[in-house]
Amino acid sequence: MVATDEHQTLALDPTSITRFREALHGEVLTPGDPGYGEARRVWNAMIDKRPALIARCAGESDVMRSVQFAHDHNLAVAVRGGGHSVAGYSTCDGGLLIDLSNMKGLRVDAAHGTAVAQPGLRLGEFDRATQEFGLATPLGIVANTGIAGLTLGGGLGWLNGKHGLACDNLLSAHVITADGRLLNASATEHEDLFWGLRGGGGNFGIVTSFEYRLHQVGPVIGGMTVYPLSEMKQVLSRYGELCQGCPDELTTAAFLVIGADGQPAVAITVCYCGPLDAGEDVVKPFRALGSPAANLVKPMSYVEMQASFDAGFPPQRLHYWKAGFLRATSQEAIDVLVEYSTRMPSAMSGIGLQHLHGLASRVTPNETAFPHRFEFWDVPILSQWADPNESERNIGWARDAWAALQPFSEQGVYVNNLGVEGDDRVRSAYGENYERLVALKNAYDPTNFFRLNQNINPLG
Ligand SMILES: Cc1cc2nc3c(=O)[nH]c(=O)nc-3n(C[C@H](O)[C@H](O)[C@H](O)COP(=O)(O)OP(=O)(O)OC[C@H]3O[C@@H](n4cnc5c(N)ncnc54)[C@H](O)[C@@H]3O)c2cc1C
Questions:
Q1: pTM
Q2: Which CATH architecture is the domain 106-216+433-444 placed in?
Q3: What is the pLDDT of residue 460?
């Protein structure tokens, strides 16, 4: 059996693999085992890697044993929560994949407004369980995404204006560090680590449970109003102005997509999480930005809102993303957005303008490791296609659109939208918190054991 890390090829003897198998409650898969082919897949079909071993962990002790095994055998380690890293960081060629996706335990403490969740949960699974009690924590906007990677990178969703980012609602976490310790990180224990977990990604250890603060949420007024290409410029301009006066309860996004008629369109999407009777008037202007081709805004359950975009992002399509921030929807930026929406090579692609505002923007930049604390639109340029022969065209479109937006974009990028784009972009993602994160990396992972991520190099 051969396992590789980036620098060497290592022989793994069958006896140690057998012992590892026996020690784990979950399974250990190697190439050729039934289930290996399925277990090695991630959401983005562009990523086609073959770990030497996949440890499908059943609990915390399995994760600890896996870390120890990787140490003992000098293996590169990838960690998987929901497997949605578009960059492909939740798998590896050779090495050991520590797969947490079967760890789906969740305990809701409705009386105290908290939930403790294991890292294999998807957003939809978490939301459905907490909504049984009328409660929710801010996560993202596609139900199949993993809570783990999303929370560790920040976590931007429909509740950010009222309740902040996912990471702002993290109360504590169990973390297995590179040296195999199990720590509880919170505002009062290992505070430095707790700071770094809230935006610093998987750089400091493997989180085996997340404790979140919950809020009373739902039903909401949500959904999209779709405007045609002919009105796109005027709609985006007016939309940008309206967002400036948005109450915290209303979080919005604009999606430039290909509509049902095969033509580019813009879907202005709202989620109002305050009292329903007040909400109708608040969302009204967003439904009257032009002559809608479809108007789907209505009161709905929070779970329904969270599932609104699921159909557009099924697993196993090909994806390539480029992303940045817009602080304003200037006419010049709108011209670029509209131009590239008319040049999308694939009808599955789109450009998102996801508004970060309200409470999420008022946290000070160094209170958590997530540094981008001002009002802006996160702009992922989402290339999605099915035919591998079309990859070059689709990747080219995303790159060109991103380059054309650069003159109007802010410095910075959301770490969870970043591809494999080099050190400068990683630094932009961690922004002014980068040096402090390097110091933390040196304290918790000086050998860069956890390096298959948007990596904070201990050498800085
Ligand atoms: C369809 C889609 C929609 C999205 N929508 C949003 C959105 O609305 N808002 C938003 O903020 N983001 C969004 N994202 C980005 C999302 O936050 C990232 O893809 C995130 O990485 C997903 O988490 P995951 O657990 O599925 O990731 P994985 O691919 O499993 O992991 C991502 C990274 O986190 C590390 N990691 C995972 N679990 C752990 C753990 N338990 N401990 C330590 N490290 C770990 C991995 O090693 C890897 O480096 C979206 C992504 C997709 C594909």
A1: 0.97
A2: 2-Layer Sandwich (3.30)
A3: 76
